[in-house]
User: What shape does this take?
Amino acid sequence: MRSTIFAFALGLLASTAAQADVTVYSAGPGSLINDLAKGFTAKTGIKANVFQATTGKVMARLEAESSNPVADVVISASWGTATSFAAKGLLLPYTSPNAETVPDFLKTDTAVAQGVAGICIAYNTKSGLPVPKDWADLAKPEYKDMVTLPDAAASGGTYSLVEAFAANDMNGVLQSIKDNGAIVAGANAAALNPVLQGSKAAVFAAVDYITLGAKAKGESVDIVFPESGTVVAPRPMMILKSSKNQDDAKAFIDYVLSEEGQKAVAKVYLMPSRTDIKVDRPLIGDLKLLSSEGAPARDAVLDGFKAIFN
Amino acid sequence: MAKAAATGAEGSALLRWIATFGLLLVVAVPCLFIIIQAIFPDIGSGSLAAPFSLFFKTLADPALFGLARNTLILGIGTVVCAAIFAVPLAALRALFRVPGAIYWDALLLIPFMIPPYIAALGWIMTLQPRGYMEQLTGLNLAGLLFSVPGIMLIMGLNTFSVVYFVLSRTFETIGARYSDVGRVFGAGQWRSFWRITFPLAMPGLAASLLLVFAMSIEEYGTPAALGRRIGFEVLVTGIENRISEWPIDLPGSATLSLVLVSMALVAFMVQRWLLTRRDYRIVSGKPQASDKRPLGIWSVPVCLAFGFIAFLATGLPILAILATALTRTISGGLALDNMGLHNFEALLGRGSDGLIALGNSLALGSSTALLAGLFGAITAYSVVKGRGRFRLFLDALSITPNALPGVVVAVGIILAWNQPWLPVTPYNTPFILLLAYVCILLPQPVRYATASLHQLGDNLESAARVCGSGPLKAFVRIILPLILPSMVTSMILVFAVASRELVASLLVAPIGFQTIAVYIWTQFDQGSAGLGMAMAFCAIMITTLIPLGLIGLLKWVTKGRVAGLN
Assistant: This one.
């Protein structure tokens, strides 16, 4: 019993101490948000506390905490979260002075992209199979039973691509790779792992920065942006209206959009949001993008995906 | 029996209050909030609007039937596999002098220490086409691996040690004494085992199989890693998906959890019914000689059987983990120029996050083990030896978390402990993890202690009371030492699981606080599988060696006076 009281006392101390800093809830990658938090503290002297998980887990924690919110800044890997939070009136409007060179489709009144991920084909360079150039190449006989793809329900990137396929009448591609033996393998990492080991040869709808990170570590993988077009997944940053440290939260957004912050974003192979940051990888301007205009609602998109793959 | 129960009831008033209050705080509060969440979808923002609006919608979902059926199939299949692996080994270990018995025990303890999601990953990387097995032997077993029986086999291998340890202790306590009586009266060796020894071991068997059933319907990692690829979804993956995939459906996951809990409670009622039909008390205070038989020419085949199972359950996953930790890149495979210690160097470098995470998890794991062990013993004592309406309630409450997926417990805990009107709260401190772990793991010590208390006659405690000791003293001096061997086993299990718990930790961990599992998960998430596996390997080694060292020390200090520590 005494230890419980002691525990509560300590708990009280710890929770009051946390009030003075910026608390950031962020989707992965962990090394990026840790670098940003360190850089921010070095620059401003304000401490940044980080909770890092998947977009889903971050959202679940926010929802469970909603009677007594803890986070000041939220960074997710799915733009839909920002739209939905804004519609619920949870966000603080803020336009960072550093967001001037961020293209309009990557910012709203209440959210701005931290960086952008591209959706691509990831392939094992040692598989001995012809390098795919377009989505449909993975439906060819040489790729029979050699393709994985992340579940559209678990991966925001796959979802965006499937949504764009639905809008552009391209669902036939999904059906043809399914008929060619492609398997749905959970989230992004679960889809990439068999390709690294060589058990499968390519990931349909891989996330580019994860694959480029693996390539940089020496894995024999590479990426292709398909000719017929793809989608990008901007990663929204938003400030919660309930934040008690709104000025510090704004300073954090400013820092991520600063040249230093955007370079940290580029270091993990994401595309920076600012167009004036030069990096050595294909940028949004280099990609052919599919529009998602006229796509059905989320449930309908997911049901269509399930109907093909289950 | 009624008279005997009364002795305990008198003595346990204080203990019963501790058990009741503690269970309410640790288990009932989060469970209550899960039920509230299932009924009131907007409770997270403090609103009671639209009660039941999503409750019936979730229950009416036609997919629910398939999920529930798959869960049952998986649970029963895993129990069968675990029993097939465990029962023969446990009987051999307890009734015969198996060469190197203590080393087999140590080896079979390791599956507890391997996080199931890591084991599943190890199996995938070994058995899939171009996996480690194909790289070494040219064969792959992908067909078996990605199938429902494959999932059952792997989950059986992950969990059978629970049955093995409980059952071998139970058989040992029964000893050969009772079956010898049968043999004197003309029964053959097999007949006396099946008709006498085996039935007497029912409490241990039922309790441990129930644990396996509850563990397997609650287990997320293996079905998620293997089942998703073949479209085999169970309740817990359905629940987890509702929490981890945007848009979040907390009410739906809470409702599905209630379905899962009711399944576990039904299993629990069946087990209780089995146990209360007969009297299983065999520890009467009379000294018994431990009289294990020699195996003779059977030594070699028995050792081979132990070796085969130990290799499948322990050796193969560990080797797969080690192989991944030692290779520079996954695509490089098991080539010599691709091997090295760099992952371990990165992990154990000075001031690395990995070391901090290890320290955090070990501290949390040992606190959880002590707290849950003591609290579990008290609860089991109040349930078995106590009296009154509360007994069933306490017992049911103590098994509930076993069927609650960790992620749901985490949501319940956040809902309960992050209320704005609470003057102080452990939320956002490491103590919230302690609370979560004790809640999730309490069923283990309770089950173990219940099983051994069922075998404990009341006359020992009565003798202590007659000789003038108070009720508390009788508990501490008589009951506790007698159930200590079981408690130590269960506390090791709690320690191992708590120091690697993933799903709840990921959601409820205080901001900026890393545990072993969160660290491993982060590494996988960033594509550093090798570093994650290096951490997994170190964690398995540490969580195995610490308890073994402790037991050795305890044996040395007590000079063998406490029975059953071997």
